[in-house]
Structure formats: structure tokens, C-alpha cells
């Protein structure tokens, strides 16, 4: 019976001009967004790989110079392009994917695409994730709003209801029919997407990291997770559409109600949730943040350890420990030692303030998730970014790994001066390429899918709760008014 | 010698329905046995359609019960609907599907099985559609042709109860005559038929018994073969003018 209802719905939808037009437009947009995203992704991946290689070669081929100069010359950490980043660019355009690593300071990320965005782009950039999260629900509404309300208006619901078909069966059958019609659009898109992900994973060189089967298995897991999350979301939307259609007095009323819900879910609530989160957990401006950091660097995090006093205390302590009266009498280069101590102090300051800032961003994210009570798309957005490796958590993971790398490479430079330079050649001592080559290239260890999902348990729980609610709505729908 | 009366397939017992201050049905009692055509006459708003809607469980009565085969419709709506076929004033079908596809769909849902396509085609032919019309989308069908598909649904379902709500309203005389021929066919197969109609002539011709309703109450009931056309009309008008 279920199959019969689903089959008839499917057949009717395929014959319906609305489906052909709306479905064609959405499928076209999905394809264009996916392909455009993939082309941009491939170009950026190539640029990133080229920049990484150029930077590495430049670093290795530095002429002999003072290690502290080399530390100021610096290195770049480039975030690898995650394979699904072409589907969902997440926070990357705003947070940036390249960081300049230099002595004394932890820099903010640079070359954020959002900085170069045109005014039009501020209305939102179309990505495959945007189409899936915004336009497919709109398509589901167009396909399903008249499922019951339209039949009621045409009188066929009366005929149908006289046959003794349980309401829940009717609802499930119609849901299956719409799902099958959607599958005509989404399955080819998913296959193309999976092929692109596989291609992109190869292009990023990840295939070289392990056995092919392991990598493909990992990507199969990623794709399967995307499919499950998106299917759950569509399932929730479809159920709401059918239940509203079953309850509405007319097809027009159903359409207006559903369009209002769509606007609330996709546009209004996420915007309001972001603004409320920003108001509840404000972050300092870039200028304020830098001022805080500079103040702490000068006077300590507690505000009572001025730089001069710290330097004097350090020198006195070292002299006392080594039983000498002058830094020139120390068995190592004091400037190299002091610079490393200075780095460690700065590291503490940066770690403190960046952790505060990032924790604040984390609080904002969690606050936004409250909105998922009325707008499931918020949970889906966070999950999508998490799976794509472009959420804030993974930006933070990359920034922390890049910072750890910066600290280590500065430590090596400072220790080179401490251990190799005489007291009078702190800034004239020159190291050669042996030192430069001792610094391994920066590699980013992206969190596993399991870890990425574990950071989104609230979103997963919220989506699960919406699914349970959808199932309850279907069970509750026992009697449909026929007129 | 005592006569054993078979239990009626359709039975209303004290059926009462109120819409706000309006009493749509007032303790209605009626019963229809197998092979009987019971015609409900009455003006608009007399309660004819409400009676049928109670049997279909489209409307829940405030008091009394509508029973099909001894089962109260409100208590087992799915089970009771499995036994009946319903033909409204205009049988509404899916305009994007052909007559055969429509019948296949409704028959599958009605029977829960998978009906044989050839048999379905035969039901459509029996109902009066031509072979070329079977595969035509019903979007362009006239009302008469749609009613024929409705009859075919009833035939395919093998329903032993027929609920007809002004099925010939708006049909031309030829189509109306054809419809009543098919109704006779169903009756002869043992179906219990309850038909709401304004058509006194057809009620007298096709009906076994006739009930006249006014303001939710059954004000008269008579056997169709015991009254002439003119007397029926006179009786009807008398009640309407009371």
C-alpha cells in the first residue's frame, strides 16, 4: 500500500511542471555551486601547494644569517584544503587559512577572502551546502505543500479517505513519493559530489599518506555521514511540510505557512541567533584585542610585572645560579637565553588572550545553537562545517598547531644563538642552511571525523530530537479533515 | 411461520449531529439490507450528506451510531471503510493519471492487494468507458465519465455497501440513465445502497425504499413500489411545505 501511494505521488510529481521547473533550477544551481566550488577549491589547493613549496624552498635557501633574523624572516603555515571544503567553506573565508609565523608574536590569520569580497558577496556566497540547506527545503515545500491541502481542495482526499487507508500510511507514502522525486535530483548530485570528493582527496595528496583502501574508506565514511545528516534534515523538513499540508485549510494557507517557516528556519532565526550570541558574548575589536595583548606583553598578564623588572630579575637570577657577575662570563650566550625566555613569556600572553578570544567564539557558537529549537538548519550548518573541516573548532585546531610549530621553530633559533654564539656576537652570529633544514615542514593533523562529530554533539542531539519530533508528528496524525 | 430478517448492512441508530446551534441530524434511524437501494430525499441542508458522512466517519456524530455490517464506523473507521464504496456528486480523480491508472491506484489502496490490470480494464468497460478512454488522462473527462470511473472503483473493490451522495446531480438524462443501470447492476450483486438525491423520478425508479428528510429528521419512509410518481411528488412537496 505504501509503495502504491509512493509510486503514484512520484509519478504525478514527475508529470507536474512545477517539479520539472523548480527541480531543474535547483539541480542546476546545485551542480553549478558544486562545480564552481570544486574549481575554486582546486585552484586554491594548487596555489596553497605552490605557496607552501615556494615558502619551504625560500626558507631552505636562505643565505647564512643570524638565527634571530631568520626567526623574523619567518615561515608561513597554510591550512590544507579539506576535501569537502568545496561543498561548505564554513568559517574559512572569514577566519583565513594562512598564518605568518615569526618571532615574538602570534599573528592573526591573513588573506581572508571575506576581506576582498564584493558588496554582493556579503548577501551570501552560494555553495553546494547553501543549496542543500536553503533551496532543497524550498523545493520540498513546493513539492509537498499541496500533498494533502491540494487533494482536499480538488476533492480527491475525500475519495482517498473513503478507501480505509490509515492516515499514517498515507502520510508515509506521500513522504516516500516526494523523497523518490527528490532522489531523482539529489542522487546524481551526491554521486557527482562523491566523485569530486574522491578527486579532491587525491589532489590534496592525502592519498599518498596511506593505503588507498584506508583513505577511500575514510572518505566513504565522510560521504556517508554527509548523506545521513542531509537526509535527516530533509526528513524533518518533509514531515513538517506534510503535517502542515494535512492541517491547513487550503493549499494557499499551507504554502504561506510553509514559506514563513522556511524564511524563519533559513534566514531569520540563524541571523537573530548570531546577533543574540554576539550580544550575549561580545568579542573585542581587533584594535582592542591588540591593545590588551600589548599591555600584557609590557606589564605581564597580571599587570604587575613590567618588562624591565622582569628582564632585571631574570639576569640577576641567571648570574646568581651560575655564580658569575657578568653575562659575558656565562658558559652560554645570554641574549639567546633571554630571547627564549622572552618568547616563552609572550607565548603565555598570546595563549592566554587567544584562548579567551576563541573560548568566546565557542560560547557564541553554543549560544547560536539555542536557535536550533525552532530552526533545525542551525544544527545542520554546524554539522556540515564540522564534517567539511571548516568549522571554528578546526580553525582553532589549525591555529594551535601552527602556533606550536611557531614556538618550536623560534625555540630552535634562540637555542642556536644561546648554544653557538659567543657573548659578543649575539646578533652577528650567522647560521647556515643546516639550521634552516633542521626545521621540518609544517604539517597539519586534521581531527578525525569522529573527533569532529564529537565536538558537535549538541547539533547531533538537536537533529536527532527533530527527527523524533517528526516521527511523533506522523504517529499523531490519525485523522485528516477531508473538507 | 416466522421470517428471519437478515441483519442490515447499513444501520443508523439515533444518529444525532449538531453544528453549533444547527441540528443537522436528529435521532435518525434507518437500515439498509443487502440488495436494497435506500434513497434519501430532502432539500439542501436536510441532513442527507451528513448521514452519509457519518457512515464514512468523515463526521463524528454527537449521539447515536452509524454502523456498517454491525460495526460502528466511528469505532473502526478503517475496517468499515474496507466494505464500502463512496461515490460523491462528482468523483474527483487525479487529472495527471489516466482512467486505468486512477482505478489501479484506488483499487490497490482499497483492496490492499495488487489488482489484475485486465480485470480493471474490464470494470471500466462495464462502467461504460471505451477502450480509448481507458488510457486517457482524466483531466479532460466529463462529469459523467468520472462517475463511471467511480462505479468502476466500486466494482473493483467488490464493495457490499454503496454510499452515493447525489451521484447523478448535473448529469444529462442519458448519462443519468446509464448510471442507474449500473446502480441496478450493483444492487443485483447484493450490495446495500444508500443514495442521497434530489431526483424523485430516479428515486422511485431505482430505489427499494425511500426516506424523506427535513431539518435532520426522517419525516417519512415508504416502499418505492407502493407509491406512484405523482403521489411521491405530492408527498415530498407536502413535507417540504410543512
> Which residues of chain A form runs of ≥5 with pLDDT under 50?
118-123, 203-212
Gyration radius of chain B, to the nearest Å?
18 Å
Number of helices of chain B: 9
- What distance separates the N and C termini of chain A? 24 Å
Main beta sheet of chain A, described?
A: 2 strands, antiparallel
CATH-defined fold name of the largest domain in chain B: Rossmann fold
Give the topology.
The complex is a heterodimer of chains A (483) and B (242).
Chain A: H1 2-15, H2 17-60, H3 67-73, E1 75-78, H4 92-95, E2 98-101, H5 128-144, H6 149-154, H7 156-161, H8 167-203, H9 212-247, H10 251-280, H11 286-299, H12 307-322, H13 334-368, H14 376-388, H15 392-420, H16 433-437, H17 449-454, H18 457-476
Antiparallel strand pairs in A: 1-2
Chain B: E1 10-19, E2 22-32, E3 37-42, H1 48-55, E4 63-68, E5 71-72, H2 77-81, E6 84-87, H3 99-111, H4 117-127, H5 131-134, H6 143-157, E7 161-165, H7 173-188, E8 192-197, H8 200-206, E9 209-214, E10 217-223, H9 229-241
Parallel strand pairs in B: 3-8, 3-9, 6-7, 7-8
Antiparallel strand pairs in B: 1-2, 1-4, 4-5, 9-10
Description of the structure:
- The complex is a heterodimer of chains A (483) and B (242).
- Chain A is mainly α and 483 residues long.
- Chain A has helices at residues 2-15, 17-60, 67-73, 92-95, 128-144, 149-154, 156-161, 167-203, 212-247, 251-280, 286-299, 307-322, 334-368, 376-388, 392-420, 433-437, 449-454, 457-476; strands at 75-78, 98-101.
- Chain A has one domain (2-280, 332-476).
- Chain A contains 18 helices and 2 strands.
- The longest helix of chain A has 44 residues, at 17-60.
- With 242 residues, chain B is an alpha/beta fold.
- Chain B folds into 2 domains: 1-83 and 160-242, P-loop containing nucleotide triphosphate hydrolases (Rossmann fold); 94-159, no CATH class.
- Chain B contains 9 helices and 10 strands.
- In chain B, β1 and β2 (22-32) form a beta hairpin.
- Mean pLDDT of chain B is 88; it is low at 1-5.
- The A-B interface holds A 1, 4-5, 8, 11-12, 15-16, 154-156, 158-166, 482-483 and B 56, 58, 77-82, 84-86, 88, 90-94, 96-97, 101, 105-106, 108-110, 112, 157, 163.
Amino acid at each position: 500500500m505504501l509503495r502504491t501511494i509512493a509510486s503514484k505521488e512520484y509519478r504525478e510529481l514527475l508529470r507536474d511542471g512545477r517539479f520539472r521547473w523548480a527541480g531543474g533550477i535547483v539541480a542546476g544551481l546545485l551542480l553549478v555551486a558544486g562545480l564552481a566550488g570544486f574549481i575554486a577549491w582546486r585552484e586554491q589547493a594548487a596555489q596553497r601547494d605552490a605557496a607552501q613549496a615556494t615558502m619551504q624552498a625560500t626558507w631552505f635557501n636562505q643565505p647564512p644569517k643570524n638565527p634571530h633574523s631568520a626567526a623574523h624572516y619567518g615561515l608561513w603555515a597554510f591550512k590544507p584544503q579539506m576535501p569537502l571544503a568545496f561543498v561548505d567553506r564554513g568559517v574559512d573565508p572569514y577566519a583565513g587559512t594562512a598564518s605568518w609565523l615569526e618571532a615574538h608574536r602570534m599573528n592573526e590569520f591573513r588573506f581572508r577572502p571575506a576581506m576582498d569580497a564584493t558588496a554582493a558577496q556579503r548577501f551570501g556566497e552560494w555553495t553546494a551546502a547553501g543549496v542543500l540547506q536553503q533551496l532543497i527545503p524550498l523545493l520540498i515545500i513546493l513539492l509537498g505543500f499541496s500533498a494533502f491541502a491540494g487533494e482536499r481542495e480538488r476533492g480527491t482526499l475525500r475519495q482517498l479517505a473513503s478507501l480505509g487507508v490509515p492516515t499514517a500510511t498515507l502520510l508515509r507514502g506521500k513522504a516516500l513519493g516526494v523523497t523518490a522525486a527528490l532522489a531523482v535530483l539529489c542522487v546524481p548530485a551526491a554521486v557527482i559530489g562523491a566523485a569530486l570528493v574522491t578527486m579532491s582527496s587525491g589532489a590534496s595528496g592525502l592519498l599518498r599518506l596511506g593505503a588507498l583502501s584506508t583513505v577511500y574508506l575514510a572518505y566513504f565514511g565522510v560521504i556517508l555521514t554527509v548523506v545521513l545528516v542531509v537526509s535527516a534534515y530533509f526528513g524533518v523538513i518533509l514531515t513538517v511540510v506534510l503535517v502542515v499540508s494535512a492541517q491547513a485549510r487550503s493549499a494557499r494557507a499551507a504554502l504561506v505557512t510553509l514559506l514563513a517557516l522556511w524564511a524563519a528556519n533559513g534566514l531569520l532565526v540563524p541571523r537573530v541567533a548570531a546577533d543574540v550570541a554576539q550580544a550575549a558574548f561580545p568579542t573585542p575589536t581587533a584594535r582592542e584585542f591588540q591593545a590588551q595583548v600589548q599591555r600584557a606583553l609590557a606589564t605581564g598578564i597580571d599587570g604587575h610585572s613590567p618588562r624591565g623588572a622582569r628582564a632585571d630579575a631574570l639576569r640577576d637570577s641567571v648570574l646568581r645560579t651560575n655564580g658569575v657577575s657578568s653575562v659575558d662570563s656565562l658558559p652560554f650566550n645570554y641574549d639567546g637565553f633571554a630571547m627564549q625566555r622572552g618568547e616563552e613569556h609572550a607565548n603565555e600572553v598570546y595563549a592566554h588572550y587567544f584562548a579567551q578570544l576563541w573560548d568566546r567564539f565557542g560560547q557564541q557558537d553554543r549560544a547560536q545553537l539555542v536557535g536550533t529549537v525552532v530552526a533545525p538548519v542551525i544544527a545542520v550548518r554546524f554539522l556540515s562545517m564540522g564534517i567539511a573541516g571548516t568549522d571554528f573548532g578546526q580553525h582553532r585546531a589549525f591555529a594551535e598547531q601552527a602556533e606550536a610549530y611557531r614556538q618550536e621553530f623560534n625555540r630552535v633559533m634562540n637555542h642556536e644563538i644561546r648554544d653557538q654564539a659567543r657573548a659578543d656576537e649575539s646578533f652577528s652570529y650567522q647560521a647556515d642552511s643546516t639550521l634552516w633544514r633542521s626545521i621540518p615542514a609544517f604539517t597539519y593533523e586534521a581531527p578525525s571525523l569522529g573527533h569532529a562529530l564529537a565536538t558537535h554533539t549538541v547539533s547531533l542531539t538537536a537533529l536527532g530530537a527533530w527527527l523524533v519530533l517528526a516521527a511523533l508528528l506522523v504517529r499523531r496524525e490519525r485523522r485528516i479533515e477531508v473538507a | 411461520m416466522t421470517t428471519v430478517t437478515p441483519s442490515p448492512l447499513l444501520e443508523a441508530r439515533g444518529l444525532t449531529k449538531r453544528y453549533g446551534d444547527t441540528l443537522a441530524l436528529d435521532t435518525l434511524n434507518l437500515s439498509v439490507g443487502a440488495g436494497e437501494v435506500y434513497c434519501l430525499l430532502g432539500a439542501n441542508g436536510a441532513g442527507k450528506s451528513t448521514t452519509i458522512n457519518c457512515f464514512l466517519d468523515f463526521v463524528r456524530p454527537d449521539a447515536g451510531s452509524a454502523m456498517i455490517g454491525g460495526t460502528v464506523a466511528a469505532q473502526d473507521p478503517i475496517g468499515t471503510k474496507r466494505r464500502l464504496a463512496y461515490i460523491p456528486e462528482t468523483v474527483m480523480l487525479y487529472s495527471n493519471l489516466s482512467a486505468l491508472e486512477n482505478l489501479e491506484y484506488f483499487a490497490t489502496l482499497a483492496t490492499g492487494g495488487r489488482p489484475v490490470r485486465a480485470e480493471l480494464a474490464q470494470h471500466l468497460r462495464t462502467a461504460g468507458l471505451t477502450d480509448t478512454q481507458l488510457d486517457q488522462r482524466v483531466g479532460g473527462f466529463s462529469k459523467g465519465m468520472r462517475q463511471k470511473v467511480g462505479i468502476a472503483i466500486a466494482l473493483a473493490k467488490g464493495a457490499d455497501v454503496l454510499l452515493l451522495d447525489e451521484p447523478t446531480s448535473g448529469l444529462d438524462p442519458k448519462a443519468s440513465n446509464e448510471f442507474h443501470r449500473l446502480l441496478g447492476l450493483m444492487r443485483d450483486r447484493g450490495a446495500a445502497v444508500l443514495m442521497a438525491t434530489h431526483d424523485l423520478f430516479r428515486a422511485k425508479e431505482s430505489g427499494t425504499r425511500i426516506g424523506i428528510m427535513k431539518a435532520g429528521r426522517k419525516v417519512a419512509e415508504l416502499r418505492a413500489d407502493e407509491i406512484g410518481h405523482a403521489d411521491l411528488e405530492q408527498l415530498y412537496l407536502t413535507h417540504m411545505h410543512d
